[in-house]
Design a protein that fits this description.
The protein has one helix at about 90-95; strands spanning about 15-20, 25-30, 35-40, 50-55, 55-60, 70, 75-80, 85, 100-105, 115, 120-125, 130-140, 145-150, 155-160, 170-175, 185, 195, 200-205, 210, 225-235, 240-245, 255, 260-270, 275-280, 315, 320, 335-345. The chain is mainly beta.
């Protein structure tokens, strides 16, 4: 059996950089039609993260660093194109002279299907090769109701966001079975560690995700008649890896094996509050040591200071290795989750190994 089924990960995930000019234009170089695009302005002044997907449409915006309801704006992203996307004159994605990163994932070209595996009928758009689904549904208010995810195996990562409410309970609820037990969740838009929530994602199975509500009927994943968005991933050998590691509190830090050279990394400490989420990628940091970071829970500009963040690590041909004792990512005995997507598998399907950078 081949080591991986995906020799070219950039056919399913890719990062592009560009500079805004407040002029309607097309951004190319993605290599495919993206179905989920996550934008972040890297330069000052600070600006929210924004996400768009081809299931909800180009004019529907959510903010990973905020609990805000979904916004409708047709001047930001105007189309998902065969090799990228087109922008309008809106300043969330095209601020004059602002430097931007756009992370792009491929699903199913915008083609969705109805999924009746759960108690609630969901709309799914799935890339089965890359283990990625975009899921939308309308809540019914019932505790432990289920939605189908379309992945054909238990997700290793899922995040749910209410689209129709900006209340405190409409957070970005993250479930990662590697560290989260039943009803335990993380919150993408906060610095909170792992917690037991009665109103988040309860469990995940091979065909469905179970949603919980608390006894006060205040809930973040299944409020009656509210609409929701869920992104779900399962691990694909040589392409994606969601897991956890333990920090060692040492500059000769923990090594994490992924089985590929990472192109993109999301990391969060889970056993303590007050710790940010971190995103690094090999496009913004093409050389080791990796030190350009953005935080999903913050609207801050890109942090490349190093001496301030100490969030240094090396990207290797088969994983990544911490190079600082930074308490957010590598404190002694700490637990961190990570999600990674590949630049290149460690070994291709033809047995060709990748080289270190």
């Amino acid at each position: 059996m081949a080591y991986t089924t995906i020799d070219n990960p950039s056919e399913h995930f890719n990062t592009v950089l560009y500079t805004g000019n407040v002029t309607a234009r097309s951004i190319t170089g993605v290599g495919f039609q993206p179905d989920w695009i996550w934008f972040k302005k890297r330069s000052s002044p600070a600006q929210n993260h924004t996400v768009y997907d081809s299931t909800r449409g180009t004019n529907k915006i959510l903010f990973p660093d905020a609990t805000d309801a979904e916004s409708t704006n047709s001047s930001q992203v105007t189309s998902f194109d065969s090799d990228g996307f087109s922008l309008g004159t809106g300043t969330l994605t095209n601020y004059n002279s602002g430097t931007y990163v756009a992370w792009n994932w491929k699903a199913n070209g915008g083609t969705t299907s109805s999924n009746t595996d759960g108690d609630i009928t969901s709309t799914v758009q799935t890339n089965s090769t890359a283990g990625f689904s975009i899921i939308t549904y309308t809540g019914n208010g019932n505790n432990l109701a289920t939605i189908g995810h379309g992945l054909g195996a238990t997700p290793d990562f899922a995040v749910v966001k209410g689209r129709g409410s900006s209340s405190n309970t409409q957070r970005w609820f993250v479930k990662i079975p590697a560290v989260c037990g039943n009803s335990e969740i993380l919150e993408w838009d906060t610095t909170n560690g792992k917690s037991d929530s009665g109103n988040g994602i309860e469990t995940m199975g091979s065909s469905t995700i179970t949603l919980g509500i608390d006894t006060g009927n205040v809930n973040g994943t299944n409020e009656n008649s509210n609409t929701y968005l869920c992104y779900a991933f399962k691990n694909i050998k040589g392409y994606s890896k969601i897991g956890s590691y333990t920090g060692n509190g040492n500059a000769d830090g923990t090594f994490v094996y992924t089985g590929f050279k990472p192109a993109w990394l999301l990391i969060k400490r889970t056993d303590a509050n007050g710790k940010n989420w971190y995103i690094a990628d090999s496009t913004r940091s093409p050389n080791n040591i990796t030190k350009a970071f953005l935080s999903p829970n913050l609207n801050d500009a890109e942090d490349t200071s190093g001496d301030t963040s100490n969030a240094y690590f090396d990207i290797l041909s088969n994983g990544f290795k911490m190079r600082q004792d930074f308490s957010h990512l590598n404190a002694s005995g700490s637990t961190q989750i990570y999600m990674a997507f590949a630049e290149h598998p460690f070994v291709s399907s033809k047995g060709v190994p990748v080289t270190a950078r």
